[in-house]
Every structure is written in structure tokens, then in C-alpha cells.
Amino acid sequence: MSQHEDQHRPDEPAVEPPTGQDEGSAATPTVEELDDRWRRAMAELDNQRKRHIRELDQVREAERGRLAAAWLPVVDNLELALSHAEADPSSVVQGVRAVRDLAVQILRDLGYPRHDETDVPFDPARHEVVTVVDEPGTAPGTVVRVLRPGYGDPDRQQLRPAAVAVSRKQE
Amino acid sequence: MSQHEDQHRPDEPAVEPPTGQDEGSAATPTVEELDDRWRRAMAELDNQRKRHIRELDQVREAERGRLAAAWLPVVDNLELALSHAEADPSSVVQGVRAVRDLAVQILRDLGYPRHDETDVPFDPARHEVVTVVDEPGTAPGTVVRVLRPGYGDPDRQQLRPAAVAVSRKQE
């Protein structure tokens, strides 16, 4: 809150680090000096904690703004596709496809790549089984259809697994 | 890093707060005790700083995931609109309109309401003038058309001002 507090960089403690013990008796601190040092360290702990709380809020807000701004082109392009549709209804499909590709790219740039691979073995970390189907000629437990793509990777950050149809065990 | 460190809640300092001075001579700490107290306070300052750096990363990552997940329905609905378009091309316009409304609602829920008001006085904090037009019968400096909506409020959080056409000063 004080000017003093705000001038400190978070990585610079307000109090000096412990000095060596080999400075001779002239440098030996008195009880009063040591008590004062300790009280200042305690005050700095409190200041640091308050700064941290403010910083957490700022970081959260900045991240929210950054991400919301990243999605504005999606909204703009949707409106563009709609306004073109009035003149040429067939153009809207092309426009929507471009918007979909843009949205998928934004998710990839944020660290959530799209996953809609088929013909891969079922993996409980990546796939959510929606239905089991008979698929002759396919190894059992193979992803044969993706009903809803997944985004992100389970070992890093995953928004959701892919919803898939898996081939049945052959009896 | 140590077990000791991780057991502390951030709002609980590892060292005791200063005690009163009126505890009698039996409680007067020695130089060694005071030096030890101070060193523990310094160590806690360092631990607190390290915890905070980790927390900042966690908060940023959690906020990113929360916002990306909020947009997934937009991507899903775009794909739904596209798949319906194959059967009935005219249905896509209706689908896209619903997706646009959903995107605008997500932005509002994130704290960025849409602004596309016309017939309001030009406000440099809310509007970016793209063109000035002759509009007889309109007070000069009035927003007569919104070319691109704005999102958010200037006194809180603004993603961008609205791009507008403003009526010219009458000579």
C-alpha cells in the first residue's frame, strides 16, 4: 500500500540476506537490531503476500481479455457470412467452413489441438466410447468413427476427449 | 520443495508473529534465537515467492482452459450447421445465426457485452470513427451506423470500441 512497498520488485527482498559470521565482533548485531530485522522481514512477508493476491487477479483478468480477443474474428466472420448470405445463400456454407477452420486454429494456438483420428486403437485417456459397433474386418477395440472431436492432449491439457464409435470384440 | 513448505497455506506465515514486549525477562529471546527467527522469516519469504510463481502459472493455465472450453459449443454448432447444410442448404443461415447469438452471449458472460447502438452521441471512449457522413435531420456528431460492433465497456474491460459512421457538422 505504501510507496515503499510498491517500489520493491517481487524478486528483491526488502531486507538484506544473512551475512557471514566472520565479520568480527564490531559487526555483531545487538538484540534490538536483530529484533528490528526480524520485524521488517515479517512486514515484508505480509506485503509480499498482498502483492501476490493483486497479481493473481491481474493475471486472471489479462488472460481472460487475451482469449476473448482471440475469438473476436470468429464472431466478425460469422456476421460477414450472414450478410453475404442475403445476397447469395450458397456462399454461406463456404463462409461457415472458413469460420470453423479459424475456430479450430485458435484452439490449436491456445494449446488444444483437434483430435478426430479414426482407425487408431481405443485409448481411454483420449476417447469416450459412445457406441460399440460390429465392424467386420477391423481389429476389435478400434476407433471406427468420431462423433465429436476431442481437443487437447491428456498428458498436457485436454479440454475434452473425442466421443467415438469403437468396433466390438469378435465372438 | 520440502514437505514443510508444501504444508503451509499461503496465508499462514511459517514464523510466529511478533509477541508483546510485556512477557517479563524470562521470555526475552537471546541473540541466537532472534537470529534464527530472522533466518526462518527470510527462508519463508523465499518459499512464498516460489509458491507464488507456481500459482501464477496455474491460474493462467486454468483461466485459459476455462475460456477455451466455453467456446467449444460454438465450434460444435458450426459443424452441426455445416452437416445440415448438405441436406438442406437454406438451413445453414438459421444455424449460423444461432451460433452468432451464442458467441455474443459467451462474450457477454465473460464480461464483454456487445455494443452496436445507433442514434447515440459520439463518445471517443466507446467509438472509433471510420467515416463521417451527411445525415440531414440528425444532430451533428451522432452515431448513424455501426460498421463493426464493440465489446466491453471502457470503464471496466473493453475488448475494442465500436467502429461507427458519425454525422457531419452542418455548415
Automatic annotation (TrEMBL), chains A, B:
Pfam families: GrpE. Keywords: Chaperone, Cytoplasm, Stress response. Residues 1-12 have a biased composition (Basic and acidic residues). It is found in: Cytoplasm. Residues 1-39, 151-171 are annotated as: Disordered. Participates actively in the response to hyperosmotic and heat shock by preventing the aggregation of stress-denatured proteins, in association with DnaK and GrpE. It is the nucleotide exchange factor for DnaK and may function as a thermosensor. Unfolded proteins bind initially to DnaJ; upon interaction with the DnaJ-bound protein, DnaK hydrolyzes its bound ATP, resulting in the formation of a stable complex. GrpE releases ADP from DnaK; ATP binding to DnaK triggers the release of the substrate protein, thus completing the reaction cycle. Belongs to the GrpE family. Homodimer. This is Protein GrpE. The lineage of its organism: Bacteria, Bacillati, Actinomycetota, Actinomycetes, Kitasatosporales.
